[in-house]
Amino acid sequence: NPQHLKQVFLNLLKNSIEAMPDGGMIFVNINSQKEVVKISYSDTGHGIPAELADKIFQPFFTTREKGMGLGLAIIKNLIVENGGNIYWIEQKGQGAHFIIEFAKHA
Q1: How many angstroms separate the most distant Cα atoms in the chain?
Q2: What angle do CA 12, 6, 54 make, to 5 degrees?
Q3: Is 38 helix (H, G, I), strand (E, B) or coil?
Q4: Three-state DSSP class for 51?
Q5: What CA dihedral angle connects 55, 91, 38 and 88, to 10 degrees?
Q6: What are the backbone dihedrals phi and psi of residue 72, each rounded to the nearest 5 degrees, phi first?
Q7: Where is 99: in which H helix or E strand?
Q8: For the segment 35-90, what is each residue's pLDDT rounded down to a tens digit?
């Protein structure tokens, strides 16, 4: 669903912008392989501590003072609803990095 993908990337961009108050860079790479399309999304923000990795996709989990903790939960739900999956990749001191995968259908 194109609207779902739009919402996914708007939420990811919002998170990145909030994690880079003094500016930074956002990288998106799309790799179409034989069976799967992989989207790599990363930024140069403060990143996600490894000890929080198992909580980041849970509804209402946030580390922000004014956050509701729904952004990544919504992202995951929309991706799964469209037959995909999202993974957080640890990159110490290098910002947030996610891989989104969608299986190709014949």
Answers
A1: 45
A2: 35
A3: strand
A4: helix
A5: 0
A6: -70, -30
A7: strand 97-103
A8: 999 999 999 998 888 888 888 888 776 767 776 666 889 999 999 999 999 999 98
Give, in degrees to the nearest 5, the angle at Cα 1 between 84 and 73: 55
Nearest to 75 by CA among 19, 20, 6, 17: 6
- Phi, psi of 97, rounded to the nearest 5 degrees: -145, 125
Distance between CA atoms of residues 27 and 46, nearest Å:
15
Query: If you compute the radius of gyration of the chain from its CA atoms, what whole number of angstroms results?
Result: 14
Tell me the CA distances in angstroms from 6 to 3, 21, 61, 72, 80, one per residue in order: 5, 23, 22, 14, 15
